[in-house]
Amino acid sequence: MIDGRLHRSHDPGGSVPDGPIRTPRKRILRRLAVGLGLLLVVAAGAAWIGYAALNSNIRTDSTTGRLLGPDSSRPTQANGAQNILVIGSDSRAGANSAYGSSAGARSDTTILLHVARDRRSAVGVSLPRDAMVDVPACTLPDGRVTDPYFGMFNSAFEKGGTACTIRTVEALTDIRIDHFVVVDFAGFKKMVDAIGGVPVCLSAPVSDNDANLDLPAGRQTLNGEQALGYVRVRYALGDGSDTARMGRQQDFLSSMVQQVESSGVLLNPTRLYPLLDAATSALTVDPGLNSLDKLYGLASSLSDMPSDRTTFLTAPREPYAYDHNRDQFKQPDANQLFEQLRNDQPVSVTPASPASADGMSPATPASPAATFTGRTGSQDICAAS
Questions:
Q1: Ranges of Low complexity compositional bias (predicted)?
Q2: Which end of the chain is more exposed for a tag (fewer CB within 10 A), N or C?
Q3: How far apart (Å, rounded) are the C-alpha atoms in residues 142 and 144?
Q4: What is the pTM of this model?
Q5: What b/e string do you get for 66-93 counting C-beta neighbours within 10 Å, with b at 16 or more?
């Protein structure tokens, strides 16, 4: 040691200058640390930009809650269960103009989704759009109040929007609607494409110019445009009834659930972001679901739900007594179903048999253990084709 410093002697390979020891390993580690720090900053910025973009996609409907009136005028909220009304709008506005120029919009599809309190099961009930029901008085955004009337279920959306549809469903079922989601044609297509298409099975070829549909028989995977035609076509598939179409929509949803689970979309960021982008840009929701955090909270609460405990069915219906081109809810079966949902009781379904292939409720006497015709999220869509 000289003057407190380490003296470095010459070695055969040359001299080592005086000063702090700087090995190649330390230089590499320092550069890695700086590089990783920069990557983390960039990644965090990109994640925030993506999060903000996805959040901004979601359209919030703050008007409907106000139009529904005070809580005291509505059914009692379920104790921990969630009831979400999913409305497929046939609006031709904006990106949907490619599907026609019809004025106004009706609810092309309406599904009452009941999520059990323990989040271990869910039931999606299709409400027939052609069902003749009592539509209550509804408050419009401009303050006017419509007169109550007896008419087709889907006319409530046309005359009074989401709020009037919710009021009609609550009056019909005595079930409190906690949240709502409105999806349009363009949004539906984007979601199907984002998961790489959805498999379906056709027992015979189908061709329908109105639905822009030309498909062979057999198992196949539909892209967004084809899927939209498949769930909307009425007269070129089955018996031409809206009930048969609802059954087909339920089969499609069942297949879509399986596709999301099996395709690895949820574990692959490069595929998940397009799905989230498609889903969020497709939705108009209430303030309770209007952010990624809120939607994620709902989705994560369902993450442990087995697919065979996700059930789809059509509310029991039969031809309307005065016009067989319309429906009416079959009693006491329909009220039995709504009571089970109100009380958060399990709903059992059996696959459609030849006797009930038209979507009619099976001839089962009403009882606490009543079974309805339907399908589960784990059902093989080709099993009955």
A1: 361-371
A2: N
A3: 6
A4: 0.77
A5: ebbeeeeebbeebeebbbbbbbbbbbbe
